[in-house]
Amino acid sequence: MSDKMHPRFSVVITVFDNAHELEENLPAYLTQEYEPGYEVIIVDESSTDETDDVLTRFKATHAHLYTTFLPRPNRRVSRYRMALTLGVKAAKNEWIIFADIRHSPAKTWLSELAEYATSSQAMILGYYKNNGDTRLQLFDDIGLSRDIVSKTERRKANGHRGSLLRYLRGKYDFTVVSANRGHDLLRFYELDLRGGRLMACRLRTLLYNMFH
Question: Which helix (H) or strand (E) covers residue 27, if one does?
């Protein structure tokens, strides 16, 4: 059992035909220097490449790696959001990290996050800098992040690539959320934002990040 100074994390990653990225970046997630312990949950969205073989090999040597499978759903249903929902349900720890397999975190990633994963925070948005460091944006109320999350996760199949000024624009690289708020956060994903609603969301995101 963890305490407030040593939170336990469940890292949730969704993949689809990402065998190469798994080979390259999954070791960084599985070898974190974090004493309290953690788990990595991979949700495979019906991959057609060698993803299953790669995961089977990693599972043989890493007991804290868990995998689950999402059958290909109806086209009208968001596969990405469903996959994350499966990951939230499978998570056993009090903090969940939605991560992107295309990124490779530093060895001390979880240790750095642990300092901010406290009862005073409901959610954290993380941004990777060009030098490998991270920048964090803290929220004591998930509702305050709605514009940023809704804009960034709008119709995204596998996360987001990021770009210059992504902190200012709200294009974050990973999310940390308390497990009891995980489903609340997913309600902001892939909303149908169009026209004036999307422009207003972009403007509020820009203004929020300029003054916080």
Answer: helix 19-30
Three-class DSSP category at 94: coil
Phi (first) and psi of residue 180, to 5 degrees: -75, -5
H/E/C letters for each residue in 96-139?
A: EEEECCCCCCCCCHHHHHHCCCCCCCCEEEEEECCCCCEEEEEE
3-state helix, strand, coil in the chain (%, to 5): 35, 20, 40
Exposed/middle/buried for residue 169 (C-beta within 10 Å: 0-12, 13-18, 19+): middle
Q: What is the DSSP letter of 6?
A: B
Residue 113 CA, chain-centre distance (Å), reads 13
pTM surpassing 0.70?
yes
CB atoms within 10 A of CB 202: 15
Check residue 4 and give its pLDDT.
Answer: 55
Q: Kind of pairing, strands 123-128 and 134-139?
A: antiparallel
Q: Using one digit for the tens of pLDDT, what is the confidence trace for 105-122?
A: 999 999 999 999 998 899
Kindly provide the b/e burial profile for residues 142-168, where b requires at least 16 CB atoms within 10 angstroms of the residue's own CB: beebbbbbbbbbbeeebbbebeeebbe
pLDDT digits (tens, 9 = 90+) for 24-76: 999 999 999 999 999 999 999 989 999 999 999 999 999 999 999 888 755 55
